[in-house]
Amino acid sequence: MPLIARRVHGRWRAAMLGGVLTAALLCGGCTGTSTTTDGHAPARSARPTTIRVPTQAATINAALARARPGDLVLVSPGVYHESVRVRTARVVLRGTDRNRVIIDGQGRRSNGVVVTAAGVSVENLTVRNHLLNGVLVTGMSDADGGLARGSDGYQRLDPARFPPLDGFRVRYVTAHANGLYGIYAFNAQRGVIERNHASGSADSGLYVGQCKPCHVLVQDNIADHNAIGYEGTNASGPIWVLRNRFTRNRVGLTVNTDYQEAYVPQTGGVIAGNLVSDNNAPDTPEQADGGFGIGIGIAGGQDNTLLRNRVSGNSRAGIVLASHEDVPPLGNRLEDNTLSGNAVDITYRASARSPGHGNCLRGNTLHRTLPEDLPLTAPCPRGNSKSSPTAPGTRTTPPPAGIPFLDVAPPPAQPQLPHARTAPATPAFHLPGDVHPDRVPLPAPDLLATRHRQDASAR
Fold first, then answer.
1. Helix H or strand E encompassing 209
2. Residue 142 lies in domain
């Protein structure tokens, strides 16, 4: 079985879930009708207002239907059984209590929150038990404000016809037990995903896809007990993945090229200061092709920098460099990472069809590579211009069977957005601002541990 499983596309999984998804995806209880999406509408004569749920509007969608650009929809504690659609630009959707404002799909609705307007911020609430996504941010929106056909998974859509959504923020969100992705940014750029907790996703807890250039910052998140903690597919720089905790998934983090999405190949990501450990958890949903025991995987990714990450305790490999079909891994730099307790710390598994070159290693703390002379054949600063040797195939035991995503245990209570009840609305524009990955240190082994669910077996 290959170390990196071929990706399973959401449209296939959706088909297996049944026809109920189509109707639920298109509306799923939503009532909003605003169609402002450009994010640059003329200023309103009135100041932005706060619309409170349920005192001023009975449902979240009813509040959003009334909202104008710049307004704050402020949601009080409760369990809300609706699929929320945000179609008005520059709206802020916020819960007053992250752990008690819950958008619950009950295992039958497709999405928790779908954002198809620019400059929207989703913050300080929980989305759980959806068949597809907890929070979906996408420019794949048709003229009627609905999702373009194929946006529920991986049918390649033309970004010239569906321009990327420009400006988004998802922060202080708990996304738990969602059947595809916890937090999913697709065909969207100039955004920030920060201080979220994603668990129980049957594909990836956090996902950024189909953007070039992305201008996306993913920082200070936790993703545990997912099939994959974080996935960036055809998500090209500038994009930064900084100071996150990706632990006890089946696979910690992947950076991929994939022909199912636009903008092949993936290039230019920076992955720095992350803790990527113990991604061998059996009490996780199983991706159908069975990736397991891998910390970081790069498949067909090019010119990425992995800097000062701590990668440990992964039962098959700490870091894997591989091809994707005819796309080789090119020019990836692995510098000052600390690797320990992995079956093999770094393995190079590019194919004979697309062997790759220019990948380099410098200053890493590690014990074993495959091939064993990899540090000598791929030195920095300029890497090796020749094709790197590929590690021989190794026989591995089958991964343990996964569990249904709805059966994954919930995380502990998570920290609140400061002053959530009173802070003014801040639309998601001019993001992500200045980013300095060179200042991100090697993380401690207990990075973000106070927000992490400890398994009974580990206590």
1. strand 204-211
2. 25-40+49-288+305-313+395-452
CATH number where 138 lies? 2.160.20
Judge whether 327 lies within some domain. no
Task: Specify whether the CB–CB gap between 421 and 74 falls below 8 A.
Answer: yes
Q: How far apart are CA 224 and CA 182, in angstroms?
A: 11
Nearest residue to 242 via CA among 440, 430, 432, 431: 440
Alpha helices in 8-160 (DSSP H): 10-17, 20-26, 60-66
Domain count, the chain: 1
pTM here is: 0.87
CA distances from 126 to 149, 284, 312, 364 (A): 27, 19, 30, 38
Per the document, the length of the chain is 459
Across-strand partners of 251?
A: 228, 294
Burial of 446 (0-12, 13-18, 19+ CB in 10 A): exposed
On whether residue 86 sits in a domain, the answer given is: yes
Give me the amino acid identity at 323: S
DSSP helix/strand/coil, 302: strand
Tokens found for residue 334: 């692995």
Q: Is residue 13 part of a domain?
A: no
Assess if residue 299 is contained within a domain: no
Task: For 347-385, write each residue's pLDDT tens digit.
Answer: 999 999 999 989 999 999 999 999 998 887 888 876 565
| Residue 374: both structure tokens together | 């990899």
Residue with tokens 């992947």, as numbered in its chain = 254
Supply the Cα-derived Rg of the chain in whole angstroms: 21
The tens digit of pLDDT for each residue in 166-218 reads: 999 999 999 999 999 999 999 999 999 999 999 999 999 999 999 999 999 99
How far, CA to CA in Å, does 82 sit from each of 72, 76, 106, 448?
19, 15, 10, 31
